[in-house]
Structures are given as C-alpha cells and as structure tokens.
Amino acid sequence: MISNIFNFPYNFRAVARLDSDNIVHNHLYHNCPIGRIDDNNIIHNHYIDNSPVGRVDLDGVIHNHYTDNSPIGRVCSQGFIHNHQTDYSPIGRVDGDNAPLAGSTYLLLVHGNR
Q1: 73: which strand partners?
Q2: In angstroms, rounded to a whole number, what is the distance separating the alpha carbons of residues 99 and 21?
Q3: Phi, psi of 40 (to 5 degrees)
Q4: Per-residue pLDDT reduced to its tens digit, 35-82
Q5: What pTM was estimated for this model as a whole?
Q6: DSSP labels for the chain?
C-alpha cells in the first residue's frame, strides 16, 4: 500500500512516498520521514505537540490548518494533485493506492504549503 508521489510536469521521478504505516518519506533527503497521516490529519515531524498542519476530506479536498482551515487544493480521481493557487493546474501526481492522502501530504509538506 505504498504511494509514490511524482513531481509533475517537471520530471517523472518520485520525490516522496507514503508508506503502509502512513509515514511520509521525502526521497530528496535520504528518504527521511518528514511527516505522517493520522485519521486524515497531516502532521509534520518537527512539531513537538504533534499538531496537524492540514487534513484531507472525503472528497479529496486539502485543507491547511494555518490559513483559517480553508481549502488549498485537491486530489482528483486520476491521482493528479491540484493547487488552488495555480489555477487548478496539476503540480504533482500520485501512483499508488491512497492518492488523496499521499497527494495531500505532497502539497502540504513537500511542495511548501506548511
């Protein structure tokens, strides 16, 4: 149940992955864990109090907890990650079983929306 996250349209190499324990690993930095998913909440590793930085809802809409909990993007049924700030153009793609969770972590933790 591993989902690989691709940086699109820049290249087709995985930049991160969500493993079967819902831990997010950043391939660019020695496969280090950078966050985790807990009940659809995205939690960044560096926060001592384990506060969520965002969440994904059942419709694949991504919410950032630092901007009034407003939607910042979505993951479509084809696994493409869309950022509201880029006029819904896809910024990434998920190859694996859990596209909404993996795509949400990409947008919030890897793509710089934390």
Answers
A1: 62, 83
A2: 15
A3: 70, 5
A4: 899 988 999 876 666 788 899 888 888 898 866 678 888 888 888 988
A5: 0.81
A6: --EEEEETTT-SSEEEEE-TTSEEEEGGGTTEEEEEEETTEEEETT-TT--EEEEE-TTSEEEETTTTT-EEEEE-TTSEEEEGGGTT-EEEEEESS-HHHHHHHIIIIISS--
